[in-house]
Specification:
Helix content: 40-55%
Structural class: alpha+beta
Shape: globular
Number of strands: 4
Number of helices: 11
Order of helices and strands: EHEEHEHHHHHHHHH
Largest sheet: 4 strands, antiparallel
Length: 258
């Protein structure tokens, strides 16, 4: 089956989800999680990119990063291969550690970026394994409130969007983190279950509202049209015919997007 094109971010910022093969755990203990973070640090020493937030769950990882001058695929391949080699060696196993390609979504404005940071930090709370974000060790939330623990983690960029005063910024950041998420982000549960036109119409409306996409411009804006088609093909189980119907374009337009 051919791989679909990824959406490209004008800002270079992406929300990444990397999960275990067959949804199995990729971390068995704290040492495994430390080694994964060390892999990020090692790649960061080799090439320039920025990590704004992370969260390590037992069977998946969330990252928010800016690829800068390096291709996203190169960053993620290096991190994943380095960890997979360690994991297979330590646990005396063979085969894939991660499932297929990582999932990614573009982040192109400050509102969406801040919401993505909140979403990533709230993952353990949503999963019921932590009472609050600051009660979970394996995320960047503590770095934002208590100071940076990792040299590769850029908390200044996000805090600087809130306030030039770091004390005030951290106070507002904590308050903001408690607000419920209203934006749909990629999750461990896939949207591949979205198959019907009615389900697709509801999902498309949510994504367009979150991204600021205007469907009325789809006929004249080829880049927007391609981005929406890529997103629907990568993140739902909708057929090409249904996508074409939802966007009011010919099926051949959808087929041409690879």
């Amino acid at each position: 089956m051919p791989r679909h094109s990824r959406e490209l971010s004008d800002t270079g910022v992406y929300h990444i989800m990397l999960r275990g093969n067959e949804r199995k755990n990729i971390f068995q203990d704290d040492e495994d999680k430390l080694r994964f973070l060390e892999g990020i640090e090692a790649k960061h020493k080799e090439a320039e990119f920025a990590v704004y937030a992370y969260c390590l769950m037992d069977n998946h990882v969330h990252l928010l990063l800016n690829q800068k001058e390096l291709e996203l695929a190169s960053i993620m391949k290096s991190i994943a291969v380095r960890y997979a080699s360690y994991y297979n060696w330590k646990h005396s196993r063979e085969g894939h550690v991660f499932q297929d390609r990582y999932k990614s979504e573009v982040i192109e404005d400050e509102r969406y970026l801040l919401a993505a940071v909140r979403y990533i930090h709230n993952n353990p709370v949503k999963a019921g394994i932590a009472a609050s974000s600051d009660g979970y060790t394996w995320s960047s939330y503590g770095d934002y409130l208590l100071g940076r623990r990792h040299p590769w983690l850029d908390t200044d960029f996000v805090l600087g969007m809130i306030s030039d005063n770091r004390t005030q910024a951290r106070h507002e950041f904590k308050r903001f983190s408690l607000v419920a998420d209203e934006i749909a982000f990629i999750e461990i549960k896939e949207n591949k279950a979205i198959r019907t036109q009615d389900e697709g119409r509801t999902y498309l409306a949510e994504i367009c509202r979150a991204r600021g996409w205007e469907l009325t411009r789809i006929k004249e804006d080829k880049r927007l049209r391609t981005a929406i088609i890529c997103h629907l093909r990568n993140n739902t189980g909708l057929s090409q015919r249904v996508i074409a119907d939802l966007l009011d374009v010919h099926k051949s337009v959808v087929e041409k997007v690879k």
